[in-house]
Amino acid sequence: MSQPGEKNWKGPLLGITVLDFTRVLAGPSASLALADMGADVIKIEPPGTGDETRTFPPFKNNESHYYLSVNRGKKSIVIDLKSPEGVALVKELVVKSDILIENYRPGVMERLGLGYQTLKPLNPGLIYCAISGFGLSGPLKDRPSFDIVLQALSGALSVNGEPDGLPTKLGIPLGDLVGGINGPIGILSALYERSVTGVGRLIDVSLLDGMVGMLGYLAQLAFFTGEDPQRQGSQHPNLVPYGVFAAQDGSIIIACLTNSFWGRVCQAIGRPELECDERYNSLEKRREQRTVVNEIVTRFTEQHTVSYLIELFTELEVPHAPILGVQEALQQPQIQQRDMVVQVNHKTLGDIPIINRPIKFPESTQPTPSAPATLGEHTDFILQTVLNKSEQEINQLKLNKTVY
Question: Which InterPro entries does the protein's record reference (predicted)?
Fold first, then answer.
């Protein structure tokens, strides 16, 4: 087994096998995190189209951008789960695995004969993570969920958007991606517990629970005041100046979190006397005078270019940032230096750029992730190396249309 410090160390989850029954975004983002950590992730896909996102446009050489985005580092096997032979094959894989992740609606895996209570006797050490919109209990558990629905029901959508406009969906699909955060946290906790007890467990991850957990101080603000937090656009409910400010040729972010930063803002805009002005010299007073403070800052920023403001704010250590488009963000030196964009060789697309692992282990060098797999790309490999199937047995499984 590779150790930290060795070249091309796969990651701390080297030797851990994950059966991945996930599709679309919430589940695949969870199994992606485990693949990034070095786990061997076996993505089990249905015959035909496989994961639904393989059909989501736009395409390049019939490969979907969506599927490519969250399936790096995984292997793909196509198994017909509606056949008894397919279910039996999965059970063989369960015996060889450490973790199972699925994000079907509650009850689907049970109807397939692959629910936790069925599989637990086959592998008592199995960690079974069920990710769903509303969890395994509650009045909404059987309801389908989508990112925007989760944003709406969690309260997150109500606080996003301009004060005088309609609520606006978050640009990033956090309602789904929260499953990629909480799923791995639960799995890794259970993996540690298993190292002590030898026994796995069932993990219930609700995306709605996760979004409510993401409310953070906004929930506590509601508890304190008895009122709903309101939409502030890019501004902060309690901190001023904080948000987007117009410049001569665009706009820029300023984030004044403390009084010490307020002094730097005052110096930058050429109004040092405002630092001690009794109308603005505390967080509470600036919040009460939000409109006036923002107008003072804007009168300065709109007279200058973004590049000038960046240079000025950097020199005076005013927290700020330019607003980058996605392409510019991916090309900025910080991201390039951190190897967050890498080239991989895809079976049908050739060399393509993908996002790299977001978590680093400085003592070791992980290899570049493998490219997202084409549908069923590793069927033979998995049957041979994991289940020790002979060529004749594999051919028979294909003849029976159990695998593809």
Answer: CoA-transferase_III_domain, CoA-Trfase_fam_III, CoA-Trfase_III_dom3_sf, CoA-Trfase_III_dom_1_sf
pLDDT at position 2 = 47
Q: What would the CATH number be for the domain defined by 17-214+368-399?
A: 3.40.50.10540
- According to DSSP, residue 77 is labeled E
Q: Which of 36, 51, 147, 176 is catalytic?
A: 176
| Buried-exposed string 189-221: b where 16+ CB fall within 10 A, e elsewhere | ebbeebeeeeebbbbbbbbbbbbbebbeebeeb
**102 vs 20: CA distance, rounded Å:** 6
CATH number of 242-324: 3.30.1540.10
For residue 6, pLDDT over 70 is answered with: no
Start-end of CATH 3.40.50.10540 domains in the chain: 17-214+368-399
| Residue 176 annotated in active site | yes
Beta strands in 22-115 (DSSP E): 40-45, 59-60, 63-64, 74-78, 99-102
58 cis-preceded (ω within 30 degrees of 0): yes
pLDDT, one tens digit per residue, over 204-229 is 999 999 999 999 999 999 999 999 99
Backbone angles phi, psi at 152, to 5 degrees: -70, -45
Segment 81-94 shows an average pLDDT of 97
Give the separation between CA 48 and CA 58, rounded to whole angstroms: 19
Q: What is the pLDDT at residue 5?
A: 58
- Which residue, among 397, 242, 350, 357, has the nearest Cα to 12 in the 3D structure? 357
Predicted local confidence at residue 354, as pLDDT: 97
Q: Is the pLDDT of residue 109 over 70?
A: yes
Contact 108, 54 (CB under 8 A): no
What's residue 205's pLDDT? 98
pLDDT tens digits, 68-78: 999 999 999 99
Please check whether residue 301 is in contact with residue 246, taking contact to mean a CB–CB distance below 8 angstroms.
yes
Sheet holding 242-247, edge to edge: 242-247, 250-255, 320-322
The token pair at 304 is 């200058």
Say what the alpha-carbon torsion angle 289, 290, 296, 301 is, to the nearest 10 degrees.
Answer: 170
Query: Of the candidates 32, 31, 44, 3, which has an alpha carbon nearest to the alpha carbon of residue 382?
Result: 44
